[in-house]
Specification:
- The protein has a 6-stranded mixed beta sheet with strand order 3-2-1-4-5-6, sandwiched between helices.
- Helices cover about 45% and strands about 20% of the residues.
- The chain is built from 8 helices and 6 strands.
- Helix 5 (about 115-120) runs parallel beside helix 7.
- The protein has one domain (about 5-184): Nucleotidyltransferase, domain 5, CATH 3.30.420.
- The chain has about 180 residues and is α/β, with parallel strands linked by helices.
C-alpha cells in the first residue's frame, strides 16, 4: 500500500492562502517519510477565527518560506505516488490555487478522498470529520496540525484497506467504490 497523504491549513478564505502543509509517505503500508512546513501566505494575514482552529498566527509564518520556495521539495516528496486527503476537494483546491497564484506548473496528479472512503467503509458512523473518525478509532492526534492530519488520514486509508483486504490503492478504490481524481 503506497501513497502520500497531504493536508493544508489556510490563513484566510482564498484558497491560495496556505499557511502550513503536511505530507506523509506510506510505503508498503508504513510511514516511510514525512514533510512539514509553515508557509508565508501571499497576503501576510491570518484570520483570528482561523488561528483559533489551527493555532497559527502571523508571527508564526512571517519568516516562513513562500509556497513557491518549497514547491520543488513537495513535488519531489510526492513523486509518482497517488495522493490522499480528507475532504480532498479542499486540499487539492488549495494546491491548485496556490500553484496558479505563483504561476507554477500543474502536473497531472492523481488523488482520492479519505472522507468519501470512510463514508463507504463505515457507513453507519454518525460523523466523518477527521477529528470524529480519530476519536471513534482511538487515534490520538493534534487536530488541525497539517502533519498530524496527514498522518491520521493515512491511518484511515490503512484501516480501510485492511477491512477490504486490499494490497494496493487500486484494489482499495475498487473495493470501496471510490474514484480516483486528477489535479490538472
Amino acid at each position: 500500500m503506497n501513497f502520500v497523504t497531504i493536508d493544508f491549513e489556510t490563513a484566510d478564505y482564498p484558497k491560495e492562502s496556505a499557511c502550513a502543509v503536511g505530507l506523509v509517505k506510506f510505503v508498503e503500508g508504513k510511514i516511510s517519510d514525512t514533510y512539514y512546513s509553515l508557509i508565508r501566505p501571499p497576503n501576510l494575514y491570518i484570520r483570528p477565527d482561523f488561528t483559533k482552529i489551527h493555532g497559527l498566527s502571523v508571527e508564526d509564518v512571517k519568516d516562513a518560506p513562500s509556497f513557491a520556495d518549497i514547491w520543488e521539495d513537495i513535488e519531489k516528496f510526492i513523486g509518482s505516488f497517488h495522493m490522499a486527503a480528507h475532504n480532498a476537494a479542499f486540499d487539492m483546491g488549495v494546491l491548485k490555487a496556490t500553484l496558479e497564484w505563483y504561476d507554477l506548473a500543474i502536473r497531472r496528479q492523481r488523488y482520492f478522498c479519505t472522507c468519501r472512503l470512510a463514508r463507504n467503509t463505515w457507513p453507519d458512523l454518525p460523523s466523518f470529520s477527521l477529528p470524529n473518525l480519530a476519536k471513534h478509532f482511538n487515534i490520538i492526534y493534534n487536530a488541525h496540525n497539517a502533519l498530524d492530519d496527514a498522518i491520521t488520514c493515512g491511518k484511515l486509508v490503512l484501516m480501510s484497506a485492511k477491512k477490504y483486504g486490499s494490497m494496493n490503492v487500486k484494489e482499495l478504490l475498487k473495493g470501496s467504490g471510490i474514484k480516483m481524481h486528477a489535479l490538472r
